[in-house]
Predict the structure.
Amino acid sequence: MRGFGDSRRPQGAWPPHPGPLPGGEREGPLTLTLSPGGRGTWVAALPLPLLTACSGPQSMLDPAGTQAGHIGTMWWILFATCAAVYGIVMLWLLWALARRHRWVEPRGVLPVEEGRDRGLTFWLSVWVGGTVVILCGLVTASYAVDKSLTHLANREELAVEVEGMQWWWRIRYPDDDPSRSIATANEIHLPAGAPVRLKLKAQDVIHSLWIPNLHGKMDLIPGRENELFLVAEREGTYRGQCAEFCGLQHAHMALTVVVESPEDFNAWKEAQLAPAPEPASDEQKRGKAVFLSSACSMCHGIRGTTASASVAPDLTHLASRPTIAAGTLPYNRGNLAAWIADPQRIKPGNHMPLVGVPPPDLQALVAYLDSLK
Amino acid sequence: MFSRCRPAASVLALCVLLLAACEREERAYRGEPVGEVKPGAIVQGTLYAGEPSPPPPQRREYEGNAYHISEGKRLFEWFNCSGCHAHGGGDIGPPLMDDTWIYGGELENIAATIVEGRPNGMPSFRSKIPDQQVWQLAAYVRSMQRAVRKDVAPGRDDHMSASPGEQSQPVQEAKPGGGTPPSSQGTGQ
């Protein structure tokens, strides 16, 4: 790409000219050539990065669960079919362009060639019949995949409540014993191989949960509960994203999904069940006092303290989460301090107000929050 | 040349007029200070030395802005104001939809009530609610008694409601004496 704007830059200007480009240094209008190493090659190589989307933590082409596997198979069937049909149509078009044309007088009257027209009619009929067969086949395959997804939903070992909020995810692991239910945010842990039922809710507007490596999209609608059954098979960390425009910060509404062995999952669950650790140092003690006496405690809860509000993410084990602000920033002390100091710069319009904690208090507050492992 | 452009120019000019509606929705996320009036610094009496001071800028900034009032409506539920005041109809706390105000019914009186707390049950939210959110809550309470412009009042309720949204109800005229408390009579308007 660097050759595009540079060819007429005066020599000696800053930044220095990167030197003649292989095969592309030419005066006059910009031309695209496919010579090796020329601009055309660069342009042709541009789509290559798209291939990286085929794997990774947020890709439906890299399924990590049973349902996503079925959906991925269906995707490849559709892709292969459409690519083949597209290829055939293009070949036919090329043939039509290249075939010999004969003009007869008066102009505009199509010449009649008995033998050739009969052949064309035959092949067009075959093509129409083929189209019907292909479409029926795709409908059947799609139906079969849908049916298999429903069949997998018959048993459940774990229920997780996912509630879409503007603009974060409230995650709850309900339990028959209320003291053993967990509340966290923007992070779902799942045991590998266990059938899971995600109960999807919303309070403000319609959201949509999409964890491409595990399942398709499902809407979260205020006033009703949707369900998504999934079995995560491959251990790893995946990324989910809101897939229904839900307001200003829709793009910054992501969540992390950690698929781990049942032992690791149980260990995580036990750690989450514990109340917040008591502050160890004087600075942390001061931070806790700042938290409880300022606006923080009006919205956030920390179990084990008097902060019991629940309209914003539960912070009992904040420091154990990989991200803050719903996947917007990686968790670390610096980002946390920046977020508290001015949340409206990082996510304009989000519901966390500018509280205005004085700098010494902010340091203590961050020290305390960082101790909430 | 100009005659051909005139219809297009008129349409463009009319479109510019649409910009006038932007103030209704203008969103100030950070709560930049709009004046020197803090929620606590209000006039309680009806007597002034000399001319009464002009109304504080928050009235225009918050009472005339649909975004702030809608945020106030959200916070009214979030901070559990409904726990005592119900959805404005009053429960163990006084109703907020009528025109009777014990401690003043102007924006800054309501803001002061939220910050300072009042005897017989209203807790003080000092340092617990940032200034901007106090103003937003106060503006929403003003919209409950239909004292704000119709076009900025909330259009509907998220909860079950016996009456139509604030927007669908007529704007109430401020009643001199009687309903309007003495503390708010001299503060402008």
Chain B touches chain A at residues 27, 29-31, 74, 78-79, 125, 127-130, 132-133 (CB under 8 Å). Chain B has one domain: 55-189. The two ends of chain B are 51 Å apart (CA to CA). DSSP finds seven helices and no strands in chain B.
